[in-house]
Amino acid sequence: MLRIDMMSRRMFGAGLAAALLLTAGLDQVVAQGKYPSRPVTIVLPFGAGGVGDVTARLVAGELSKRLGQPFVIDNRPGAGGIVAARAVANAKPDGYTLGLVANGTAISAAMFKSLPVDPVTQFEMISLLGTFELVVVTGAESPYKSLRDFVTAAKSKPGSLDIGTIAIGSGQHFTAELLKVSASIEAEIVPHKASGDVMASLLRKDIDVVVEIPAAIRGLLADKKIRVLATTGSKRSEIAELADSPTAQEQGVAGLEVVSWNGLYAPVGTSKDVIETVNAAMREILADPAIRKRYLELGVQAEASSPEELKTKLVSDIEKWTDVMQRAGIAKQ
User: Fold this and answer.
1) Domains and CATH numbers, the chain
2) Among candidates 228, 255, 223, 221, which has minimal Cα distance to 244?
3) Are 266 and 126 contacting, i.e. CB atoms less than 8 angstroms apart?
4) What is the pTM for the complete model shown?
5) Torsion angle, CA of 149/150/152/156, rounded to 10 degrees?
6) What is the pLDDT tens value at each position of the chain, 333 positions in all?
């Protein structure tokens, strides 16, 4: 009788231990299955304070509210976005390190013979954040009233007119190259260190026109110190100050269509559940009228997408800028 009792106790103890282990295992699975269960870092390829940074921070704040964990911005500018891209590509693909991908990423992929990170194969796309066309502007006292006027003047005096942009390799610089090849004009592209520098050159009449992003020209446009000659979208802009400005295509420069964009991505191998969770939250955020209004105030049109649509956009832009380089006679670096 005593032996049976001891055996029963051992069996009960073993069963209890197994039950406890099973319960612990289930708790661990549940904990691992809930995303996010701790703070998420979003790595940005540029410094704090710019439009891309501000729009990303708006989304990060809303993701924190909707998903119940902090989404923290980590600014890592430098090396044409490679520093940030490498940080994300080398991170564990668990959804806790995300990154911001942009049309600048596509330009870098087109410019360089090889990169330490391949955005097509090492990034898992999540969603667009926003889009914005570029603008071609001139001084308020300029003789050019439209992009058509500038193109006509450039053709009549080949090589005598200047197009100002920010740094070589920027979206503005490549758009200026696309303007030249699309309009079949000869003009000198004059790169500047920053937007403030190129706009100062325009006001001094050192250059004839500037290709810029909407955010960089809003103050001068409001003060009526500059004039918009054209926007580069496929349709007229949703941004209030640009709504009446004709597109380049409307003025006969059919090939000049450029829409810049920013989006969110994760390291390759990140689970589909994580991608879908963040994507669904971003769709809600970017459909919010208050967020859309704030984005437009910053010169950006809020726009979400599927992961597949964002990857298609990235690949398409790499091909587009590669073609522009070939047509412009720019050698890969």
Assistant:
1) 40-131+261-328 (3.40.190.150), 135-251 (3.40.190.10)
2) 228
3) yes
4) 0.86
5) 130
6) 434 444 444 444 444 444 433 344 433 333 456 899 999 999 999 899 888 999 999 999 999 999 999 999 999 988 778 899 999 999 999 999 999 999 999 999 999 988 899 999 999 999 999 999 999 999 999 999 999 999 999 999 999 999 999 999 999 999 999 999 999 999 999 999 999 999 999 999 999 999 999 999 999 999 999 999 999 999 999 999 999 999 999 999 999 999 999 999 999 999 999 999 999 999 999 999 999 999 999 999 999 999 999 999 999 999 999 999 999 999 998
Q: What are phi and psi of 123, to 5 degrees?
A: -110, 140
| CB-based contact 96:271 (threshold 8 Å) | no
DSSP-assigned letter for residue 213: -
